[in-house]
């Protein structure tokens, strides 16, 4: 847990009593990347993927459909201490898993709205990225050398006699 990350979330009440679990079709693969262990959750039915670090995977592993999110978070905090996810990180992970269609839970309207807003934000960011690709800036040439040569011709214009 980073020092600058808040431990508690104002959205926590929306997800604290949920009893989610990974979809039955989800498969987990352990990978090592840049010296760090990652867990990739894959749903072969929809070809959705999601990557989690060890603390997040431990938390998600506690979500069995019987425990609440709040219970899993407390267990995670007791076991991992400072390495455990904060409440905002838990809300983010749950939202990302839900958007990737890897999470199964009966959602009350509050939580459904929270995850729908997250889904809309992801779509907006993706469409913004794709929109930026349509307007690529490709430099044609570097005008510095041309302007350095033209400054000799323009210098007399910007004198007392040039403005007079």
Task: Give a structural overview.
With 164 residues, the chain is α+β, with helices and mostly antiparallel strands. It has a single domain (12-134), classed as Outer Surface Protein A, domain 3 (Alpha-Beta Complex), CATH 3.90.930.60. 48% of the residues lie in helices and 15% in strands. The protein has helices at 12-15, 54-62, 69-80, 87-99, 109-134, 144-154, 160-163; strands spanning 21-22, 27-33, 36-43, 48-53, 103-104. The protein has a three-stranded antiparallel β-sheet. A two-stranded antiparallel ribbon has the order 1-5. A hairpin with a 4-residue loop joins strand 3 (36-43) and strand 4 (48-53). Helix 4 (87-99) packs across helix 5 (109-134). It is elongated, with a radius of gyration of 26 Å. The relative contact order is 0.15.
Key features of this structure:
164 residues; elongated; single chain; alpha+beta
SSE layout and pairings?
Layout: H1 12-15, E1 21-22, E2 27-33, E3 36-43, E4 48-53, H2 54-62, H3 69-80, H4 87-99, E5 103-104, H5 109-134, H6 144-154, H7 160-163
Antiparallel strand pairs: 1-5, 2-3, 3-4
């Amino acid at each position: 847990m980073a020092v600058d990350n808040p431990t508690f979330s104002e959205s926590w009440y929306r997800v604290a009593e949920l009893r989610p679990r990974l979809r039955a079709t989800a498969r987990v693969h352990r990978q090592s990347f840049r010296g760090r262990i990652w867990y990739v959750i894959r749903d072969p039915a929809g070809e959705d993927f999601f990557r989690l670090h060890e603390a997040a995977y431990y938390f998600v592993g506690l979500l069995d459909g019987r425990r609440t999110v709040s219970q899993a978070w407390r267990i995670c905090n007791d076991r991992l201490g400072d390495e455990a996810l904060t409440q905002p990180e838990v809300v983010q992970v749950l939202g990302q898993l839900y958007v990737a269609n890897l999470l199964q839970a009966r959602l009350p309207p509050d939580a459904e709205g929270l995850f729908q807003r997250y889904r809309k934000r992801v779509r907006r960011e993706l469409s913004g990225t794709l929109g930026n690709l349509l307007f690529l800036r490709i430099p044609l040439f570097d005008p510095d050398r041309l302007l350095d040569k033209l400054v000799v011709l323009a210098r007399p214009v910007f004198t007392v006699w040039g403005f007079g």
